[in-house]
Structures are given as structure tokens and as C-alpha cells.
Amino acid sequence: VRLGMYDAFDFDSDGIPRYRYPSGLQYNITFICHFALYQHSRHLKFGRAEDLKLFLHVSDWIIEHGQETDDSFLFPYAFPYTYSYVRLSPPWISALGQGRILSVLARAYELTGNDRYLRVALKAMTPFEVAVSEGGVQARYPDGGIAFEEYPGGAPNVVLNGFITSLVGLYDLGETGKARRAAELFQQGIQSLDNNLHRYDLGYWSAYDLTGLVTTGSYHLYHIMQLWALHEMTGNETFKKYTSKWQGYRKGLRFHIFFLYTRCHTRLMRHMKI
Questions:
Q1: Rounded Cα gap, residues 1 and 4, in angstroms
Q2: H or E element: which one contains 9?
Q3: Which candidate, 80, 53, 181, 77, places its Cα nearest to that of 125?
């Protein structure tokens, strides 16, 4: 957020970041939560009251501007988005965005003890219990293992970084000690990822999703960082194994050959379909 996105943000009169898309300035709940979590980390590091104030301000803004019902809390994306073969029309939701909401509100609750944050966080977890076909974000791997979709629509694609981020949100909410179901879903997701992580291993690099799309260098490094974090959180040896394996890929000549070929082939196929 600090290094890569601040220059691209346009802050509204409330100090909330917006991002410019072809459709214009839009509120992206993922980016808003990243901004909030950055303020939270600054507060933990420096202990400054202004960082805490801004973090709670953004947390409150999220609650006030989301869609709350008796049993759910959603913050849909209000702009169209095309990812691979999935074309999403507004309003649409994402496990990535909902998971980030869990991370923000769980922290706000832990810092303040205000039950309002916990109540809304529990409602924001609802889409994780609902299948994509029914408007939620829950999908399944080919072996039946549970997964959560960053871009829900069509056949399961399960973007790896989005799935992992959503798991972290469930973990954060479970760590409050007030959301047993969040902890259960986290454990189910961890076991499922353990069983299916091999599907993202291309033998020379990591795949972005189940379609086998070769990820960029920055996302490959992000995968490595995420898996190491999961290993530290859970002690799972599979995540440690792939952290080391994928780190090794970054030094291999084989990657540069296959990466160039696969990316060019993917772009050509997309162009032909269009």
C-alpha cells in the first residue's frame, strides 16, 4: 500500500481512498481495508494516537457504507470487472474483499472491545458459508475440498493469493475467541489448501489460479510470502515445502523460457477468443 498504491489513490472528503478505473473513481473495499490495516500496523509500531484514530475512522466508514441485513454484511464492488473467462457485473462480492473486512473489524474489536465491530464481522462471514452458485463465495476443488473465490463466477478458478488472504481473514476473526465457526472454516480451508496446493505448481513457477495461468514475478513472490506466513501460523509442513520449492524457481533458467512462452500463448488464446 505505502510503496505501490498511494500515488494511485484519490482520497475523498472523508479521507477514504478511491481508485480510478475505466468507469471512473471507485471505492474498492479491498484497497480500503489495505489502507486501514496499514494504519493499524503503524499504530502497533509507533503507538501514535493519530494512526489508531484513522484506523478506527476507516473501520467505522466500512460499517456505515456496507450493506447490512439481519444476517449478513456485504460490501459489493460497484464496477464491472473481467478476469480471465469470468465477467463480473456490479454489484459483485469477493472472498478477498470479505476476508479483508474480517481482518479489519476483528482488529477494531480487539483494540476497542466494541461489540459493534464483532457483530458486523460475524455477518461479513456469511458469504463463506454460501456457494458461488447461490450468491456466496464458497467453491470446491476437484477433490471436493473447500475453497473461497476471489472472482466468483462460472467454473471454480480459485485464485491462490485471494484464497489465502480470505483464510487470513477467517483466522483473524477466529482469534478473537468469539467466532468458533470462523476458526472451523479456517481449519477446513487450510486442510483443503494442503491437499490442493500441488495444482498451482507448474514445475518451474507458480500458477495464479486453477486455470494454470502463469503468475507474474511479483505475485510469485507474494505466494511465497503468503505460504511462509501460513506455515508460521499453522506449522503446516506442506506450506514450508512449497515456500522453499517456489523460492528455488526464482533462480532457475527454465522459468524464463517457459514463462515467456506461456504468457505469450495465453494472451494469444485470449485474443483469438475475443
A1: 5
A2: strand 9-11
A3: 181
pLDDT tens track of the chain, all 274 residues?
Answer: 555 566 789 999 999 999 998 889 999 999 999 999 999 999 999 999 999 999 999 999 999 999 999 999 999 999 999 887 789 999 999 999 999 999 999 999 999 999 999 999 999 999 999 999 999 999 999 999 999 999 998 789 999 999 999 999 999 999 999 999 999 999 999 999 999 999 999 999 999 999 999 999 999 999 999 999 999 999 999 999 999 999 999 987 655 555 565 566 555 555 554 4
Residue 178, exposed/middle/buried by CB under 10 A (0-12, 13-18, 19+)? middle
In order of 44, 60, 199, the CA distances from 208 in angstroms are 32, 33, 10
Long-range Cβ pairs for the range 85-94 (8 Å, 24+) = 85/154, 85/211, 86/151, 86/152, 86/153, 86/154, 86/157, 87/153, 88/151, 88/152, 88/153, 92/152, 92/153, 93/127, 93/137, 93/152, 94/30, 94/137, 94/149, 94/150, 94/151, 94/152, 94/162
Distance (Å, whole) CA 221 – CA 93: 26
CA distance 5 to 34: 10
Burial of 81 (0-12, 13-18, 19+ CB in 10 A): middle
